Amino acid sequence: MILLLVIACIGLLVLLITVAKFNPFLAFLITSLVAGISMGMPLELISKSIQKGIGDMLGSLVGVIALGAMLGKLVAQSGAAQRIASVMMGLFGEKYIQWGLVCTGFIIGIPLFYNVGFVLMIPLIFSVVYQYKLPAVYIGLPMLASLSVAHGFLPPHPSPAALVAQFHADMGQTLLYGIIIAIPTIIIAGPLYSLTLKNISSSPNLSFATTSEPNQILPSTFLSFFTALFPVFMMAGTTILTSILPSDSPLIPVCKLIGDPAMVMLLAVLVATATLGGLTSQALSKTMNTYSEAVKDVAMVLLIIAGAGALKQVFMESGVSDTMASLLKNVSIHPLILGWLISAFIRVCLGSATVAGLTTAGIMAPMIETLQVDPNLMVLSIGVGSLMFSHVNDPGFWMFKEYFNLSIKDTIRSWSMMETLVAVVGLIGVLIINSFL
């Protein structure tokens, strides 16, 4: 009975978002309320449970996501992202231009949210297409694959960061595993798969393209790369140091302090303020305005994450978690595959990778200890599943279609299949790492 109620609640969430066109935050709250009532929770405890779920979820994430948005916005507006792109293109040259775009997309995708990175890279893709007279989809898809992988796999992006919090995983370790899995995934879903797409006819819509700034006013190469990759250096460095230092080393507490995700992002924003923003009063004022705009950009993302936290808490306090755990003990399917399947199913139904990942986490997180699986790998398994088969209910599908001026058939053949490959190859990578742990 409990299992049927969980399925019904997920079905209600899907219907509210897709059919009724409810805002996802409202849809999560309504579903949480219905779930609490239908599962027999005392009425006076339902609202407290929802509030606790929202508070617990946002408590560890507001800083990470807001500061991540600030960093990404400044990297984009300062021209650092453009500088990174131009350097990478110069390094790889015409012969390996596709690989240059892939590396550029991955580096830029780490600090930038997907939609920002997408719009930012479109002028570069189109300029390469027309300069070298190459097929647009063949050139553009690999870069967008790397952006998508960074968005779905790597903290501090909202969905992976939220999953890390839900599963009490280690963000630095998740990032390291994510990068290991991301590299072969990008290669297979990007440059290799795009070889089959050379015959797709596309006339990119140049009305979407934005102008580029002159090179002489862009930040230096060192500052651009250093600032964009600073969070990666910090998380990876502190994770490695913590694992190799003696347990009684006085550096361990220091590493834990500066390796905390919120602290990493705070330090990254302070570094970016100094390197890209400028320290004069006028420059600081402009930078602070940029940060204010960045927070507005992620306000709805934070609310959706909060709503997912509410649903997770209701599932926990109504006894769903214990019941589901006992049922799954006897299921022969591997927990990492199960998490991937649930996430992929919700993604295909809803179109939102963030909602798919967070909803799945609400079901799986309370049972993580019972399932005896590495929480870092569960984060990645659900994250890659949430990228499965983007189609007509996903805004990313329509962005790709309109920018590249494709038919729906060709968009499915290129974009949707690329996202499917990312999800499948990503799961294989997770399972391979799990076999060595």
Cα separation of the termini: 36 Å
Give the overall average pLDDT.
Answer: 86
Overall 3D shape:
globular
Beta percentage is under 5%
Instruction: Give the radius of gyration.
Output: 22 Å
Which keywords apply here?
single chain; 437 residues; mainly alpha; cell membrane; transport; transmembrane helix; membrane; Gluconate:H+ symporter
Short summary:
By secondary structure, this protein is mostly helical.
What does this structure look like?
The chain crosses the membrane at residues 26-46, 58-76, 96-129, 136-154, 174-196, 217-242, 262-285, 297-316, 336-363, 375-392, 412-433. It is found in: Cell membrane. It is a multi-pass membrane protein. Its main location: membrane. The protein has 437 residues and is mostly helical. The chain folds into two domains: 2-51 and 299-436, no CATH class; 62-296, no CATH class. It is 78% helix and 0% strand. The chain contains 22 helices and no strands. The chain is globular and about 65 Å long.
Secondary structure elements and pairings:
Blueprint lengths: L1 H17 L5 H15 L4 H17 L2 H16 L2 H13 L4 H13 L4 H19 L3 H18 L4 H10 L3 H24 L26 H24 L6 H9 L1 H17 L3 H17 L1 H19 L2 H10 L5 H16 L2 H12 L3 H4 L3 H11 L9 H10 L3 H29 L1
Family: Belongs to the GntP permease family.
Main location: membrane
InterPro entries: Glcn_transporter
